[in-house]
């Protein structure tokens, strides 16, 4: 059971690179690969523990008073200068001109793009619905192979340059991590087992939607990859995950093979990674891809709206499994669109990945 703050949130520590990937890297014979991966794993484990221990003392971040929420984001970027002290040195605030640091500018743009999709597509002001300021820190630690949301802010490493590049290069990674904040303030999905995999999947869904929205891509035009551009040139792979074809994102001598299943038939039962939250998320990811492409057009409009309705509707239990989430998406489709193409497409998508909706 996860600790819960007195305010009802599970401010969990969520990373974009799964522990199993870093664990595989840490076993490499090449110290240039194994060293950064091992340090990242150890640092993440320590931060995860501190996050859990601090939960009882957690106070929700300050946000605009009711009625004062702005239609403009409130972003602040910090530079850790390769230390682990957060948030670091303030380097850019809302409305300021771009800096000479590309990482700062990419993080600033990614936070803004996520804010814009939530506002324009769903009428939500920031991740808490009340104009919560968005905080990001770049250049975290030395050769840190991850990006994370710690319940309060976004943090980006520079990567080791051998396997991973700067974690601000992929806008869907930025949006993925920020969506963990959206989930924290809405359905508050517990970060273990199927509810944890749903937590991860929702972040992949909205991460991909922010990327598609920013690029002006329809569901058919999108690549449905999470973290494309993040892997260094020598790595045999195209991204961290594929929503279209889970299990195919990478197959590399050093990284190993993408272990994500595409259906319940191949569901992975494991005690690692909080019960496989980064692995089994491939199943609801593919269901969303199937729905979005079946409906066509812009994925954030109908398919994304249904996922947003379920996430914010108040009916999704913190320990929800795939089947209960699926049933709620069917109900959302019928509520919003009636007994039409949308409801039929939702039923078919879940059926294809082996998740029951009856």
Account of the 3D structure:
With 358 residues, the chain is α+β, with helices and mostly antiparallel strands. The chain is 41% helix and 9% strand. The strands form three sheets. It has a six-stranded mixed beta sheet with strand order 1-5-6-4-2-3, with helices on one face. It has a two-stranded antiparallel sheet with strand order 7-8. Strand 5 and strand 6 form a beta hairpin. The two termini are 28 Å apart. 52% of the residues are buried.
Number of helices: 10
Order of helices and strands: EHHEEHEEEHHEEEEHHHHH
Note the main sheet: 6 strands, mixed
Tell me roughly what share of residues is in helical segments.
40-55%
Characteristics:
alpha+beta, two-stranded antiparallel sheet, 6-stranded mixed β-sheet
Summarize the structure.
Helices cover 41% and strands 9% of the residues.
Topology:
Elements: E1 14-15, H1 19-26, H2 31-54, E2 75-79, E3 89-93, H3 102-122, E4 134-138, E5 147-149, E6 154-156, H4 171-185, H5 193-215, E7 225-226, E8 241-242, E9 251-252, E10 256-257, H6 273-276, H7 282-295, H8 303-312, H9 322-337, H10 341-352
Helix pairs in contact: 1-2, 3-4, 4-5, 5-7, 7-10, 8-9, 9-10
């Amino acid at each position: 059971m996860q600790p819960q703050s007195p305010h009802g949130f599970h401010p969990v520590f969520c990373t974009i690179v799964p522990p199993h990937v870093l664990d595989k890297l840490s076993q490499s014979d090449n110290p240039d690969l194994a060293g950064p991966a091992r340090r990242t794993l150890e640092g993440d484990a320590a931060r995860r523990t501190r996050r859990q221990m601090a939960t009882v003392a957690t106070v929700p971040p300050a946000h605009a008073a009711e009625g004062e929420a702005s239609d403009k984001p409130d972003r602040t970027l910090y530079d850790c200068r390769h230390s682990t002290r957060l948030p670091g040195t303030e380097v850019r605030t809302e409305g300021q001109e771009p800096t000479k640091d590309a990482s700062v500018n990419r993080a600033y743009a990614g936070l803004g793009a996520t804010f814009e999709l939530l506002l324009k597509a769903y009428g939500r002001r920031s991740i808490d619905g009340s104009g919560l300021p968005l905080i990001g820190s770049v250049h975290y630690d030395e050769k840190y192979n991850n990006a994370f949301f710690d319940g309060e802010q976004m943090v980006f490493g520079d990567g080791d340059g051998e396997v991973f590049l700067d974690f601000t290069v992929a806008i869907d990674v930025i949006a993925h991590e920020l969506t963990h904040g959206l989930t924290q303030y809405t359905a508050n999905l517990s970060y273990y087992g199927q509810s944890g995999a749903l937590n991860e999947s929702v972040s992949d869904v909205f991460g991909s939607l922010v990327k598609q929205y920013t690029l002006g891509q329809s569901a058919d035009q999108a690549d449905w990859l999470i973290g494309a551009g993040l892997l260094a040139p020598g790595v045999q792979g195209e991204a961290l995950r594929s929503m279209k074809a889970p299990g195919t994102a990478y197959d590399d001598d050093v990284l190993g093979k993408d272990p994500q299943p595409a259906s319940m038939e191949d569901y992975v039962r494991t005690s690692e990674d909080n019960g496989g939250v980064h692995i089994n998320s491939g199943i609801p990811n593919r269901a969303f891809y199937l729905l979005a492409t079946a409906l066509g057009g812009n994925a954030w409009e109908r398919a994304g709206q249904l996922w947003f309705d379920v996430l914010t509707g108040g009916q999704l239990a913190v320990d929800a499994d795939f089947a209960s989430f699926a049933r709620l998406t069917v109900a959302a489709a019928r509520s919003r669109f009636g007994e039409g193409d949308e409801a039929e497409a939702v039923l078919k998508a879940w059926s294809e990945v082996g998740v029951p909706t009856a």
